[in-house]
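Forgive a beginner's question, but would it be possible to get any protein sequence you like and the tokens describing how it folds?
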Amino acid sequence: MRCRPVWSPWANSFRLSSSRLPSRNIYTHFRTISTSPATSSPDTDTIARAGALYQHEPPPFTASIFEKRPQTLTEKIVQRYAVSLPDGKLVRSGDYISLSPAYCMTHDNSWPVALKFMSMGATQVRNPRQIVFTLDHDIQNTSDANLKKYHQIKAFAEKHTIDHFPPGRGIGHQIMVEEGYAWPGTMCVASDSHSNHYGGIGCLGTPVVRTDAASIWATSRTWWQIPPVARVNFVGTLPSGVTAKDVAVALNIFFKSDVLNHAVEFTGSEETMASLPVDSRLIPGGQTPGTLASEQGNRSCLTQRPYDSTTYHA
């Protein structure tokens, strides 16, 4: 393990001391990184093992430890939606898998996705109940070209009996949560970088490109590489005047590029998580559990208590 002391600029917001920084464990085959301050100097064996890692020669025990460790929440959810796995296979970070997500959402790009779908030679959507259209990006644009595109999307949805939310109905990711498409413990994808928004309610949300979305329309599945997982542990409660947006912005400062292309799992004590209502949880999922997570390059964000009393009563 390589440890490095880092002082979080928002630690005081959660009443953290330098010895109680939020932990971050990144699961890969070869390394675990912790933000907890180092308490002692590494011994000779530790240095030797670290050297082996940097030479891309994992110690003999690495594989066995990796295989025996429990799955992360991300891996458990992916396990449910992975298809054609060998018998007894437990999915892990780094695995390439085929998956069939619960839902696939597209927005104003639905028509470009439809063009890719038709260019593949596909004529019928494999599972219309799996697809959701939410038009929300360019609704102020009343040009003939944009109105024509909206008409084409609506006609395609009607032809294939796809759920279609017209312009003015709301922001697509909020619709996915409010209408129950994104649900705790499930997996949803969208052809939009802010799909990690769904993680605020414990739904594994991740973006896909238009070609992948077209593949899901045609076959109900696509491929995915399970990203490494970083865990953020919250301690305490937010003081008056500090919001989830402040936490999201601070996390982006704190982690910078360390969690690029990672799945981020947010956890904390029962008291801490109970103090964060659903709308607050959705902010760091599109922002780290909502929007900034996407700008930060996160593949997904999850709240690790998907079935607590807060989501139950939401």
